Amino acid sequence: MKILIYDCEIIKCIPDRSGYLKPGFQYCEGWTDFKGMGISVIGAWLSWDNSIRIYTQAVFSEFQKAVNQAQLIVGFNSLSFDDNLCAANGIDIKTDYDLLSEVWSASGMPRTYTYGKTRSGYKLENLVQANLGRGKSGSGELAPELWQKGNKWGVIRYLTDDILITKQIFQRRAKLIDPTNGDVLCLREPTEPIYEGVGFLEMPDTIKVDVSEDGDDIPF
C-alpha cells in the first residue's frame, strides 16, 4: 500500500484567545481563516520510496502528484486542519486516517471534537513524550513567526521532525500508551471500518452468524 503522511506549516500567525497580536508579525483572522493563513511549506513521508519530501509554494503541484499516487493519506488533526488548509490553497487532499481521531476513538471518546466529551492531553507532543520518550523539536504556533523572520530552514527542520514523529506514532498504532493515564491503546487499522457512536465501537444494528442446524458451532 502506498502511504503518504503529511503536515503543513502556515505563513501568518493565529491570534491567541485574548486576541493579542505581537508587534511586527502578520496575522490571519483566526483558526478558521484557512485562506488567510497561507501555506509556507508542506512536508510528507512517501512510503513507496521511503523519503521525506518538503514542498515549497513553487512545487505544490508536485505534492498534488504525490497525493494522487497515494492509497492511504495519514495525518494528525489533518481532517480538521491540514485538509481544510490545503483546500483553501488549491490542493485537493482528503485524509483517510487521522491519528488524533483514532486516538480519541480508542480512548472511548467521539472521533471529532465534542464539547464536554473530548478530554485534553492528547496533543502530538503528549503522545510523543509518552511513547517515544522525547519532546517535539519546536512549536507549531511559533513556526509562522520563524518563517516571517526569514528563518525558513528552522521551519523546515521543525516540519521534518514532525513528519518523522507522526510516522513513528502511526507505526506504533497497535500499542500506543495513553498519555493521560498510561493505558495501552489499540488504534483501528486503516483497513477496518469506522464505527461511530458511544465510545470507540458501536454494535451494529444486526449481527449475522452462520451456524449449523443444531447450533453446535455458535461462537459464543
Report on the biggest sheet: 5 strands, mixed
Strand tally is 7
Helical coverage, percent range: 25-40%
Rg computed from alpha carbons, rounded to a whole number of angstroms: 20 Å
The first-level CATH class is given as Alpha Beta
Strand content: 5-15%
Separation of termini? 35 Å
What's the CATH H-level superfamily name? Ribonuclease H-like superfamily/Ribonuclease H
Average pLDDT number: 86
Tally of domains: 1
Largest beta sheet: strand ordering:
3-2-1-4-5
CATH topology: Nucleotidyltransferase, domain 5
Uncertain segments are 196-220
Q: What is the overall silhouette?
A: globular
Order of helices and strands: EHEEHEHEHHHHEE
Oligomer: single chain
Q: How many separate helices?
A: 7
**SS content category:** alpha/beta
**What is the annotated CATH architecture?**
2-Layer Sandwich
Summarize the structure.
This protein is of the alpha/beta class. It is built from seven helices and seven strands.
